Amino acid sequence: MDEEALLKQFAAQFAHGPDDADDTDAAAAAQGADSTANQATDDADQSPATFDTQQFLNGLDAIFDRHAAATEAGPYLEQAMVDAENAGDEAGLLTVLNETMGFYRSQGRHKENQWIVQRALELAARMGLTTGTSEAWATTLINCATSMRAAKQYDQAEDLYHQAQSVCRHSLAPTDRRLAALHNNLSMLYSETNRPDKAELELREALRIIEASSVNPDADIDVASSHTNLALTLLTEHKLEDAHWHAAKALEIYRTGHLEHSAHYASALAGFAQVCFAERRYADAVTGYRHALAVIEECYGKDTDYWRITADNLRQAEEAAAQAGATVDNAGVAGDAGALPQSGSRLPNSPAQGKTGANAASSPSTVSVSTGSAGAAEAVSACPVSGLKLARAFWTQMGKPMIAAKYPQYTGRIAAGLVGHGSECYGFDDAYSQDHDFGPRFCLWLTDEDYAAIGEQLEADYEALPRKFSVDAQGRVTFEAHARSDASGAFPSAGAGSPVTPRAQGANRRDGVFRIGDFFESITGYHTAPAQTAPHEWLMLQESTLAAATNGEVFADPTGLFSKTRQGFKNMPDDVRLALISKRLGMIAQAGQYNLPRSLKRGDGAAAWLSIHEFVQATASLVFLVNVPMVVGYMPYYKWQFAALRKLSGSMFALLPNVGEQLETVMRLSSAACYGGAGFGEGGKGAAPAIEKINDIVEQIAVDIVKELKREHLTTSGETFLEWQRPYVEDHIASDDPVLKSL
Q1: CB 192 within 8 A of CB 230
Q2: Most CB atoms within 10 A, among 120, 181, 468, 664?
Q3: Region of 354 on the Ramachandran plot (φ > 0 left; ψ -120 to 50 alpha; else beta)
Q4: Phi and psi angles of residue 719, each rounded to the nearest 5 degrees, phi first
Q5: Distance between CA atoms of 161 and 190, rounded to whole angstroms?
Q6: What pTM, to 2 d.p., does this model score?
């Protein structure tokens, strides 16, 4: 039973518990957040609303209550989207989109969910939710992140979860179950990206919140789900005794509360079966999986990832049972063979019962999962892990303990991570990146007050941290306890890093201790992001600058101040985004559709070459802007522009996903088109075929862009000469500031 299948199985089941409870909660929150706007619309139109959010939710609940979701929920949700949109009810539409995300996840419809996630984020931005700390925005972020995680778009999911954390600190009560949902879903992301220790911590916090908020934790379905989640994560950490206890506790809660007919009972059954498999109790695992499959089929049908993964796990359990000569109860009723603890019985693995599964460490189900981050570089690099992974290990093993020991009163005030300049901050570093400015490093970010108190000494302690490390065959990093050999900044061995170039020293240093405001000012010129009402300042910031200020990872941020400041730079005003889209449309038309063919006809290869450059730059930028930088980040500087574009284009949720490959084709053909000449000799074609192909690609890109503009309701025109699309886009700019409009 491999862990990837296990994690997929659990990801599919978590459509309720703290997760999909959020989907419904988002409805009320979104409705409250937009009540003023809706009232203004009603007053203007003098017409009653035609979409009843509560009636919609009641109807959806009824579908699930009669176990008809597999056939009825999809069409019901699709019609509700149409009804809410036709009614002009933005809050109601956001409710429907949140519910749809949860349902599509449960059905494994990740490709279709890309439009739902994108629509929800765009709608929230249009409603003005993204600039505040509303419950609606927090819940929408959680649901979008969970959809991304289910589709294995882990980087985007983690970023959205962290955005949600920042919002939740201000908008939700400490016992709000949506906080538990956030911890629960973050734990799943950490599990799926081979960070089980962090997953366990998140799950324990989720369980604490849910139990604290529950009227009766012993009969609460969300408490049961959390126990199952924790059991599965403990299993991946080889903590079999604890895993068994939590898995059994989940089943006890379902039975105490008489919740066995809930669709989510299947997850508890499958979770306990997984533990049984690890304990080599194969017959009991078969019984549990069979019962789980019956519940899944009744509630969700067979055409789901959830059913298929559980069926595959059952097959493996049956094969193992047969090989072991175990007798399986074929009655198909879980518990008849003693596999599952009965209500009221003492839980297995409690202190009074001793340990079970003594051979768990060698169980065939405990498989290490590789993150795959360093495979390409391993053969040629002294360091087979990425810079971000190395930085996180350096922080966890060296930095965090140092702060706890020397600055205990500041442990809840210091933010840590790796953000800014450097290939590793973008996640694109490879073997060739390691010849300079590479090694164990991280940033510590302090408030002005804290920096004045401890900044200088903390910097000295950071510089004194041991840098020498080793990496085992599983990619685990271990640091050795000795410091740098001298004060020059050189590392003591190849296992510590590479030389630091002048551009990464002094005022341009990329790691160490910083004031939060100074750190961002060093990159952008601003201590904090420009105001949402200052579009001229936003327009002066290059996208690559914003990319450097918002890339990387934050390992710890107890106060949330660093993340809040960083988030400010991510939150480009939508009017500015639309203005930039208009500018990019103009350059695509001018350079690609107009000047490029004219220069080629003139035989001016140099002018044509530069036209291609401007066209490619503008088009790549437009792809990021259309996909919304708040969601996918900004286009980085030229070196990593296409690495980022390929990564974005490979995402299941990408808009204009084919444009990156088309641009690379244009660049490959540019030499022949610009300098291939007229050709000579019999059959000599010269530049003609390349020119024709480039012109065709440019026009196809324009067609694709117009289709996307129409999908986003930014235009009603089918004109493919993109200059003429600019007025339609600019009509959606709300501000009257002339800096946002073209001349």
Answers
A1: no
A2: 181
A3: left
A4: -65, 125
A5: 12
A6: 0.60
